[in-house]
Write a structure and sequence with these properties.
This protein has ten helices and 13 strands. The chain is of the alpha+beta class and about 325 residues long. The chain folds into two domains: about 200 residues, Spore Coat Polysaccharide Biosynthesis Protein SpsA, Chain A (Alpha-Beta Complex); about 100 residues, no CATH class. Strands 3, 4, 5, 6, 11, 12 and 13 form a seven-stranded mixed beta sheet that branches. Strand 7 and strand 8 form a beta hairpin. Helix 6 runs parallel beside helix 7, helix 7 packs antiparallel against helix 8 and helix 8 packs antiparallel against helix 9. The longest helix is centred in the C-terminal third of the chain and has 24 residues. The chain is globular, with a radius of gyration of 19 Å. About 40% of the residues are buried.
């Protein structure tokens, strides 16, 4: 926060109110804010309920027509808000917008968490324009456009407040990881659009909460991806997609064992056990959706195209 809040303050106060939501931190964050940023409004959550509940609790105290949800490891750039405002004003059905996400550590590359906007394949595997699995593209201006996307990164995420509250915000059972994909999917199931605006650039550190080597991240990613499929995939596909994903998760578990990383195999097993335990509840949440978006996937299998056909760029996907 000490490193990245100055860019938010410098480039946002002309066009927006700035809040910091403190998710029941145990350090001196609040004292630091009160001393150095008296002009910023502070929201203090009573408990740390993770990313999902943290935002749901905090946004009850924010009055705005559009929320800009910005991680504390994001550096914004001058005039980053103006292109976003233009697109919201121009496109009435647009409910969510993502800016261009570049890597703070190498600003010539797209960043893993969202790059130039997200999509999913038939089996619900997420990928991005500019990022397929761990393969990151260089930014050569190829995504300096305004484009329809399927999901926007929670690292820097604009959403109309009325839509956010209409859908009940993030699903708090996720705690963290992939809750933004679920919310984006629900938003499209209600007939709204999601767009990427390449004229707005931000830089993201990434991995600041849980690193790839942390088995808790493996657990949340595998479990929450299954949650999202059970809730949002159209009825005619949902059970075959779940079946295929369970098989592929088993393959991933074997791969972790062969790599001598059994803690990650155990994380996948725990993810499946949790999914089975919550499956009935997840399926019941489907009743609240309108399913106006049924053609949800960009390609059949990004796993096949990337790992077998060796496609590494978004533009090469079929």
């Amino acid at each position: 926060m000490e490193k990245f809040l100055p860019s938010i303050v410098a480039y946002s106060l002309e066009d927006a109110d700035v809040y910091v939501a403190d998710n029941n931190s145990t350090d001196d964050s609040v004292a630091f804010l009160k001393k150095h940023y008296p002009e910023i409004q502070i929201i203090q959550n009573d408990i740390n309920g993770g990313f999902a509940k943290g935002y749901n609790d905090a946004l009850k105290h924010v009055k705005a027509d559009v929320y800009a949800l910005v991680n504390s490891d994001i550096e914004v750039t001058e005039n980053w808000l103006k292109p976003i405002k233009v697109v919201f004003e121009k496109n009435n059905k647009t409910a969510i917008i993502q800016p261009k996400l570049l890597d703070y550590k190498d600003k010539s590359k797209f960043e893993y968490a969202g790059a130039a906007g997200g999509f999913v394949d038939f089996m619900g595997y997420p990928f991005c324009r500019g990022r397929i699995f761990m393969n990151l593209e260089q930014d050569h201006g190829q995504f300096n456009d305004v484009a329809d996307i399927f999901w926007a990164s929670g690292a820097c995420f604009f959403i109309k407040s009325d839509v956010y509250h209409q859908l009940g915000g993030f699903d708090e059972q996720y705690f963290a990881h992939q809750e933004e994909i679920d919310l984006c999917w629900r938003v499209q199931n209600e007939g709204y659009a999601i767009q990427y605006v390449g004229g707005s650039e931000v830089y993201h550190v990434g991995g600041a909460t849980l690193r790839e080597s942390n088995p808790q991240k493996t657990y949340l990613n595998f479990r929450n991806s299954l949650f999202t499929i059970a809730k949002n995939v159209p009825k005619r596909f949902v059970f075959i997609v779940i079946f295929l994903r369970l098989i592929l998760d088993g393959v991933a578990g074997i791969k972790f064992m062969l790599e001598l990383r059994p803690v990650h195999t155990w994380a996948i097993i725990k993810a499946h056990l949790s999914f089975y335990w919550h499956l009935r509840r997840m399926m019941s949440k489907r009743r609240a959706l309108s399913f106006k978006q049924t053609n949800y996937f960009y390609c059949f299998s990004v796993v096949w195209q990337h790992f077998i056909l060796r496609k590494k760029r978004f533009s090469s996907l079929k």
